[in-house]
């Protein structure tokens, strides 16, 4: 617990050599806003193109249908991104990159590749299959992955570990998947296919497919961020290969499973992969709690926080329970004060990790000092309001 008198100096915690300090999360986001606007314009251009070539009515219906998987995907990302929410501008950039840049690149490259296969003498069925199983995974995961890599390199201070990498990769993939859904739903109407079947396959059976693919790269970059240095140089290609292979496996199951075999492949291959992905995410969220506790240990030892504080702060469920208790005994104001303390302590813990691993920038120690003061002040307000 922080002192009741004058603010205590930041505990002497030796930073790792060269430890840099991060700017407050959310700063330096002008480029993200500009990128989001550019990506949004490209996405709008794709929608206009589809409206002209397929029909405005079909595209409008497709857009409404696409809202169903979009809601589920955004809720899933929000569930993952609960420890230290990413800057909204960076997330907007990620979504717009997927919906605009990645979609445009993929549409052009996939179409040109399929035409080249036709000209090389392949029949329509073989060319379509080769495009789906070989070309599309390479092109689409490269286009989406480049956006994740841009975020990692340009706003590296905002990527603290695998969970952050996963959130950005999932957001890029969500933007891509939703525009692709609009394309498929609109084409189903235009070509007289079963819209209900296409909707079920994409929105109900496989809404998380693209997220699972691109997550491989996001996790690799997030892991590299926590390791520090130039680890990303070799980790990124490994993540990209994983994304391409998962994408190819999914598309291959769809192509080879036509005629009834797809359901078998889906149940025995894709469902286990999805369950494994969920388990990995749950495990990573728990690891984030341990990282928060570890980052705050020097401050607990120096008397800024109590052991009970760290127990509460290291678990999302205990945090929520504590806020409910605060609201019940002292009302909404107490709940807000406790939430502010939780957020301030989390920011301090992540900053501490950046310092330790040399990712905080030249002002790392100063930033940590300021975050420590903010967390101590927030803790003092908790004591004042709640008496604990």
What does this structure look like?
It is a single chain. The chain has 2 domains: 1-21 and 271-388, no CATH class; 30-256, no CATH class. The model is unreliable at 1-10 and 12-24 (pLDDT under 50). It has 388 residues and is mostly helical. The chain has 13 helices and no strands. Helix content is 79%, strand content 0%.
SS content category: mainly alpha
Main sheet: strands, sense, barrel? none
Q: How are helices and strands ordered from N to C?
A: HHHHHHHHHHHHH
Output mean pLDDT.
88
Stretches where pLDDT is under 50 for at least 5 consecutive residues are 1-10, 12-24
What order do the helices and strands come in, and which of them pair?
Blueprint: H1 30-53, H2 56-80, H3 88-119, H4 124-154, H5 162-190, H6 195-205, H7 209-227, H8 232-256, H9 261-301, H10 307-313, H11 316-330, H12 332-356, H13 364-386
Helix pairs in contact: 1-2, 1-3, 1-5, 2-5, 2-6, 3-4, 3-5, 4-5, 4-7, 4-8, 5-6, 5-7, 7-8, 8-9, 9-10, 9-12, 11-12, 12-13
